[in-house]
Structure formats: C-alpha cells, structure tokens
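Hello Y.,

Per our agreement to keep a running log of every chain we model this quarter, I'm adding this entry. I've kept the format consistent with earlier entries: sequence first, then predicted structure.
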Amino acid sequence: MSSGKDPLPPYFNISPAKAAQRLSEPIDTARFAKAAAFAAKGRQDLAERGYAPDGRKRLRRFSTWEVCRYLIPVAPAHFRRVLLKNPDLPQGQGEGNSKWFSLDDVLRLRDHFATEGAAGREYRPWRPEGLPAKTIAVANFKGGVGKTSTAAHLAMSAALDGYKVLVIDLDSQGSMTSIMGGKVADEWSTAFPLLAKDYALALQDENRVREAAGQTPLPFDETLTEALTLSATDLIQKTHWPNIDLLGAQLNLYWAEFQVPVWRMGLRGWPLWDALGNALANDGILESYDIIILDTPPALGYLTINALAAADILLVPLGASFLEFDSTGRFFDMLYSTFASVEEGENAARRRDGLPEMRFEWDAVRAIITRFDAAQQTDLANVIQAYFGDFMTTYRQELTAMVGQAGEQVNGIYEADYREFNRETYVRGRETFDRTWAEVKELILGTWWRDLQMQQADEAAEVREQAHG
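Predicted structure for the entry above:
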C-alpha cells in the first residue's frame, strides 16, 4: 500500500490547459521540409566526424601486428625480413618495428607472398576461376536488427580477406551509403535505373511483337529512354576501401516501390523480380567482383524481392527476443507465400506454352543472432536455435562496447584504430565479426565448390556426348 509521502507517478495530475500552452501551432506539411533540412545538416555533421578535413572518408592504416595476426598468415619477424630483402615492396610508414600499411599495400604484399611464400599457406582467399560472384542478400522486414551493420562488416571482412566486393544499398534511408562514404545525388545514381532498364527492354520486346501483329505499341516515356543509356557500371562508385565499390541509395530510391507495380500493370508479362539479377548478369558485374552484398530495406517490398531473387545466399539478422523471433518467423512465412505465388503463376503460363517450369532457389539461408548478451539472452537464443535449426548460424554476434562506439562514429569495427581501445577490447570486438565472417565464408566457399563440381561434371558429360556423337 502506498504511503502519503510517495510521489504520484508523472502521468497523474497533468493540466490540460497547461499542456495546451506548451503546444506549438498545428504542424503543416512545410514544417516537415524545415525538419528535414535541419536533419540533413546534422546528418552531414555527424557523418563527417572522424573524416578527413575535406569531408571524405579515409581508411586507416594497419600495423605490422594487425597485418601478421589478421591479414597475412606470416610471423612478424619473417614479415620484416621479407620487406628488408625486397625494397620494392611496400615498406609501411613509421619507424623501427612499428610500421603501418595501407590496405593497398596489404593487397600487394598478399600477391607477393602468394607467389613467393610457403606452399600451403592461404595468402589469398580461394576463388574458382570462371564462376560468377556470389551474391548475398541481408534481409529482414523488422528494423533495428543489425541488418546494415552486419552487411557492412561482411563487406569489410571480405575485403580484408582479399576479395573484391560490391555493396548495393537498396534501402532509401542510405545508411550503408553513409558508412561507405558514398555520395548519391538522386535516384539516377541508385539501383532505380537498373529496374527501369529491365522494364524498358521487356517493353521493347513486347512492342516488337505488337508491331509484327499490327497492334498499337505500349507507351515508352523519357524515364525508360534514359534508363536504356545506363548500365550498372555507370552507377557504381569507388569507396575509401580499395577493394569495395558501392552502388548507393538515397531517399528518392523509394519511388521504385511505387513505380514498379505501375510498370507491372502496364506489362503483365514483365518478371519484375528478375530486374536486379538481370542487370548484374548482363552488365558483367558477376564477373567483375568476387562477392556482392545487398543491403535491403526493412520491408518485403519490390526492392527486397529483387534482392532476394538475385541472391545466392540469404542472411537474416535478428535479436534474441521473442518479438524479433516472432517477426522473423513471419518474414519466412511471407517469403514462402510471395515466391510460391510467383512460381505458381509463372509455371501455369509456362505449362500452357510447353516451357520448362521455373523455381527460385538459394544456395543457403542462415538466420544470425545479433546484439547478443550472453548473460541475459542465452536461454532464449537456445530456444530460437532449436526452432530454426539448420537455418541458424552457430555463432551469435555479441554486443561489445566497441560495436556501439563504432556505430556512433559511422564506422565499421575494422575501421577503428585499435589504439583507441585496450588490446583485449579490440580483439574481442573484432572477434564477434571475424567469427560471423568465418561462417559466411564457409558458405561461400562450399557453394562455389559445389558449383565447380557440377560444372566439371557437365563438361565431362558434354565431352562424352561429343565422343559418342
């Protein structure tokens, strides 16, 4: 029972008259523009903290300790001897044993050790020749699950491992673009033109058929005409990482969610879900990169559907909470109903035309627990692991002080200078993403290997067929 001395909770005895006095005038639409302008200035200010004076992001250098521990598997003493013996190699900056190397330097040193180093050491990551890049979509329709952070750190992990990476930001909030220091003027510097171009090509094909049949062609507007002049390579920009490129996003990209269904209504036969995948394949992107990472919006809209259809591997981040588990289960349910519905509709038409049926297929799907607090969430995480089974990664991304600090500075953990932390904090902070990368890399290598065996089996069968022919 409450005593008379206990203060009442703050939601009692609120005066309506005084509350009204604190209100501003009713908000009209112009006020949103003012708020947006202030936010844009603030966003620029926050994004540029830690940047170089010219406002551009710079990737820090890596110490001899980091290079030998994390990047090139070689003992520091041997590493120094190799540099001394080969003065044409990057020598790093600094005095004595404390040398610091750019990532460009590290990539050159990798090549040297791969050619001249000990046999059996993995100086460069494995990548089968002649096979396309692996495309990874990071998706969940619940926001705040660590989706962009996971995608960014996977890109950086792969780049530090020596892979050439393309990051495609499909979220109109543009968080990934900010992390990568990208500059995107309007929707014509995003993935939007790639979707428009795919529709334009489909429309051209349809109009050729209509012309041959003496029918009126479907309208072809300026947007579609301009989209035909662009390719994915025109839209991709360099980042402050030498081996990470970016196809960025900004607010106007969201118009794709309205425009795509309009196009689909104009041409019912257009397979809208294939637009992004077609662009990556037709513009040579799958040959130009090793790994492509797609960061998706927190919704199962047309951009996310395109990302999922283009992906070889799907990663689904979620926190170890009931609501996020429940939401992720519904996400999988929506994936099923969406893609099963597309398959059913497409295959009905294909059966009528005597064509082989199509189906969507992914090399692997993994849900990954992010922002994990072992002291409080282990029991719930174990339950989630039990229900999702082989859809789960075995490692859970722990939340460390370093993770939070890197996020506040619009940086990835790998961009943080370990001298700003004690060595143990840095090692633990890195480990949470290193172990995630190890599991994802295992998926990538396994699927590449499986693809290679299938390709070799097909080639052998073709040779046998020609020999018997």
